[in-house]
Amino acid sequence: MLDPTVARWSKYLKPSPIVGLGLGLLVAIGCAIYSITLGTRNISLAVIFNSFTQFDNSFDHLIIQTVRLPRSLMALAVGAALAVAGAAIQGLTRNPLAETGILGIEAGGALAVVGTSFLFGSSTPSDYAGAAFVGAGIAAIVVYGCASLGPGGVTPLNLTIAGAAIAAFIAALTTSILIVSQSTLEEIRFWLAGSLVGRDFGLFLRVLPVLVMGLILAFALSRQIATLSLGEDVATSLGQNTMTIKLLTVTSMVLLAGSAVAIAGPIGFVGLVVPHGVKFFIKTDYRWILPYSAVYGAILLLVADIAARLLIQPQELPVGVMTALVGAPVFV
């Protein structure tokens, strides 16, 4: 039997979830600093620091402020968006395999971008961003609608099967367009692999408010998602309007996935790997799972981007390839 004194103090010795969140933020900052130091040109930490405190338009300062810092910020934002979207959809559907890529939401955004390039020729990054949001939204609606037609309605199994089928169909359409149009392939082939190289930072700043809205909406729904993860009957008995919660959660996922696709192209498995890793420490409380997923999703994608730059120097791999190397075994 546990000693009463030990039992009384054990609750104070147990680490608070805020500790893990704080450690994650420190790791993210450290990874971002290291990411900024990487590049074909060696730049000292002192010069990097001076670029923030005493910017003088020198070549080194411009590289840091216009190339390396934006790339790190985009990796952090996209990683957070994909991880939170994955965690939210897993809680909503009670399906541990659910993820925006597996359910076809990212594929829908990619098809819309490819279709825009094919139909209208060379388009602006803003056009691609708008197409990505529309495509992601339509894909989410189609997958959810197909799943609702199966036996038992929108069950975890039906949603996974519908998502896999729609994602395969969308991928076939995307591939067909690229085979027919060589110019479209040349224009967006690197984007389709999921990459942060040469991304438009101005587009990122325009998309960022939408991404932040998606995060805020997901965090605001965390308590309701936690209840829904226990079962729809439980949520209904506690007075939740489950249909409204589902629609709002899907809206947040579309905002997050659409933003990620618009910024960096389709990057898979982040929304699958991170929530599962987080749940080793935060079991079922989505009030903590979602913030943890945001922080550690940002870390995962930034580390993947660093690895993509270091693995075959001086060349680099698309970051989507690195996340697939980690995520595919986890999915299997």
UniProtKB/TrEMBL annotation:
Write out the GO cellular component annotations: plasma membrane
Q: What is this protein called?
A: Iron ABC transporter permease
Q: Which UniProt keywords are present, listed alphabetically?
A: Cell membrane, Membrane, Transmembrane, Transmembrane helix, Transport
What Gene Ontology molecular-function terms does this entry list?
Answer: transmembrane transporter activity
Which InterPro entries does the UniProt record give? ABC_BtuC-like, ABC_transptr_permease_BtuC
Q: Which SUPFAM superfamilies match?
A: ABC transporter involved in vitamin B12 uptake, BtuC (SSF81345)
Q: Where in the cell is it found?
A: Cell membrane
- Transmembrane region positions? 21-49, 69-89, 101-122, 128-147, 159-181, 201-221, 247-274, 294-312
Assigned protein family: Belongs to the binding-protein-dependent transport system permease family. FecCD subfamily.
**How is the protein disposed in the membrane?**
Multi-pass membrane protein
Please state the protein's primary subcellular location. membrane
Q: Name one GO biological process term.
A: siderophore-iron import into cell
So which residues are the signal peptide here? none
